[in-house]
Amino acid sequence: MSPEEILTGLYDETLVGNGPKVLELTHTGLEQGLTPERMLFDALIPSLEEVGARFERGDFFVPEMLIAGKAMAGALEILRPLLAETGAATVGTFLMGTVKGDVHDIGKNLVNIMLEGAGFHVIDLGVQVSPEKFVEAIREHRPDIVGFSAFLTTTMPMFKANINALNKAGLRDQVIVMVGGAPVTQEYADAVGADGYAADASAAVKRAKELIQRRRALAASAP
Fold it and tell me: Where residue 38 sits, what CATH number does that domain have?
């Protein structure tokens, strides 16, 4: 197989969630000298972005998103240590969790996969994460960004509760806060005092990178 055929295969098989084939093609690509970065950025991430686009159009549903995400996660298991070996710099640390009262994690898990693929170190606290647990994890891991995910309108007020907890703990200035989830809007993110919002997984990666770059530029220019 040519490199182009491998990349096309990776894209197509990730799209349909064929995990075993994605693993096979990942190994074949490495054997033939394809770099982990190329497989990630030319095939796997674009495929997952297409999955997201199809979901938004109503062509794909949650099961399709899940199996595609799972297929890509399998490839990442192989590629992640190799990316570390090649000195692919970690963009930053992203601490993520679904807020207290909410057990939905599909969107969060897709964002995590995209973030890892883009070079972030992701710490996932899971679902039903209380403000106290977020505070504790921020103290322990010192992330660049903390992400609050909510799928229900009834759990969205936890964003404000979490931010209040960070303020009380004296951590608010030390971490960038991003929020997201199906019912969340930019207006709501602004209202609760978050630093960033993204409507989908690919936008989340882009926004996270922008926010980290901006913070680092401000820190570098500070007297």
Answer: 1.10.1240.10
Rounded to a whole number of angstroms, the CA Rg of the chain reads: 18
Nearest to 148 by CA among 163, 167, 164: 163
d(CA 223, CA 221): 6
If asked whether residues 122 and 215 sit together in one domain, one would say yes
- Residue 200: give the domain boundaries: 93-221
Q: Each residue's pLDDT tens digit in the chain (223 positions)?
A: 999 999 999 999 999 999 999 999 999 999 999 998 899 889 998 888 788 788 878 898 878 888 888 898 889 889 878 876 766 667 899 999 999 999 988 788 878 877 887 778 899 999 999 999 999 999 999 999 999 999 999 999 999 999 999 999 999 999 999 999 989 999 999 999 999 999 887 789 889 999 999 999 998 887 7
Which one of 52, 85, 118 terminates a domain? 85
By CB atoms closer than 10 A (0-12, 13-18, 19+), residue 33 is exposed
The two tokens of residue 64 are: 């399709």
Domain boundary among 85, 104, 136: 85
Query: Are 175 and 138 a contacting pair, CB within 8 Å?
Result: yes
